[in-house]
Task: structure prediction
Amino acid sequence: MRLKLTGLTAAKGLALGRARIREPHVLDIEEHHLPPDQVEAEVERLQQAIAATRAELAKLRGQLQGALAQEIGEFLDVHAMLLDDPDLSTGLTTLIRTGLYSASYALKLQHDRLVQVFEAMDDPYLRSRREDVDHVLGRVQAALHRAPDGSDVIGLAGDVLITDSVAPAELAQLSERGVVALLVSQGSTLSHSAIMARSLGLPMLVVPPDDLAVVTEGAAVMVDAIRGEIIVEPDPDDLLQLREREFAQTRERRELARLRDKPTATRDGTPIQLLANAESREDISRAHRLGAAGVGLFRTELLFLQRHEPPDEDEQLAAYRDAVLGMSGRPVTLRIFDLGADKADSAGIALTREPNPALGLRGIRLGFARPALLRTQLRAMLRASAYGPVRILAPMVTRRDEMAHLGRLVQSCTRELRREGHHLPQQVQLGAMIEVPAAAIALPAMLSTLDFVSIGTNDLIQYLLAVDRGNPALGEMFSPLYPAVIRVLHQVIQTCKAAGKPVSICGEIASDARFTRMLLALGLTEFSMHPSSLLDIRATIRDSDLRQLRRRTGALLRAGRRTTLEQLVARL
Ligand code: PEP
Ligand code: MG
Result:
């Protein structure tokens, strides 16, 4: 029966495939006892599942290539070690033999026990290893449910994968296997996985779990991750519409491709800077190819995630230098690690047990709490500046003295490196992300410590509205179309302009063509976005008249209601 569902777009695109439902990672299995004569067969089944998982991890390890191969490889090695632990296998076998439990239920019991042990640990690094327990036992569980011919390996060509969440490391593999779209019930449109899905061109929607529950395995599913719609068992008219939309999209892409080498300026001639957000070598090469004027935000967290030890100075230098060389002389803005809260950390750097992580020891606060780590990163960034223009960006800044302190640290690292014989440029620019309301409001007091400003609207909106950016249940409440958000953005942009400091927006709204004209009207002339949006935004800007838009600024700022704002923005 035809059914229409809606979701929030995490990565744009159109797809048609068959539903493939993956059990949640969390092992939600009912207690089930076996007749005694089946116990040995169940033990054998479990051993086979463990062996299959081991082979799967080894195969995955062998297939890794590209910029993230080393990081993901180390992460897979930890999983293989956990799987080979003799206590794991003995514990499971004992549970099956003495409790007459099914292998699945024994796995669940073992999982719950291990999680308890990990969670009771004082050491934050060890505590954070519980994620690995989830992933390894989740894989064994999936292997147990796999048909003997392996035909239900999750994610085959033509599948629309329906699941609770997908780890960023899994996405490349899913895309390689030919999975055409992802429907997830957890996570948000701003998550790391969403950003990765965009890089891979894999359409992804976040859909409420109760809606996803009605989709049956194998059903035909049409995904429109542009409008945020899903049609289960589409009828002939739906299919025709999809073909038409695909055709229109291809034509649009071809037209956009012509804009690659075109300048970015409004119709009335004001040049606008389009910068890219990047976190991998692939992003850098795409940004360069599509004519980004530089990198406005290089997220360095990926280097720190999914591994045991933080990267040392040389490893970081290699990654940052790669980005700098990849942009051939265009400026690259390297962000200090913004670990904590939504950017979970397996290396145990961020605290994992804070009562309120979004308001906790994250971003630059964490850097100051771990000075050796911060110094190592600053040294690597400064060394990368010998290869091309580098700017250093601090996340989650709240107060002026944080920037003053950071400035002194940068100077001290620069002196130290020069003493060691490194030739560094005269000065590396230092900027702050404006994403905490206090920093936005008190910006004039902070400006003298800054060379540039980057507005992180993903967090700024979250903190201004008290709306969790990662909670899909809040849906459209997370939006820039609130009078408070518009006024703060305008104030920050104008404060920077008046002081002659470059200001850009690097949050997701800069990638969203629905808001481009509104941001131009508020005075923004520098946008930093996911590379996949560069041409789309360039097209919108080239089709905008800045003089006309500036006539609407007053109305935008006076709008007292969200509905008024929505109407005004739609008409710009
Ligand atoms: C932001 O907060 O807007 C931002 C760009 O940073 P992140 O999404 O990495 O927190
Ligand atoms: Mg942020």
Q: What stands out?
A: The chain has a mean pLDDT of 88. The chain has 24 helices and 16 strands. The CA atoms of residues 108 and 188 lie 27 Å apart.
